[in-house]
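Researcher: Next entry: DUF2065 domain-containing protein (Piscinibacter gummiphilus).
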Amino acid sequence: MSDLLLSALALMLVVEGLLPFLSPGAWRQVFQRALQLSDGQLRFLGLTSMILGLIALLLLWP
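Model: Predicted structure:
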């Protein structure tokens, strides 16, 4: 189980690093826009991301 969790975290880091590596300018713009969002909007985006991730896991889990 710990190997699976570490693999998932490693894959997350790879995916998170794609945008700043491929397009640093766009990455800066994303963060500038994120700074303009309210706390509620950021929480909603985080919750939406978690729910979509859980749905993806449920669909892909054998």
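Model: Note for the record: The helical segments are 2-22, 24-35, 39-60.
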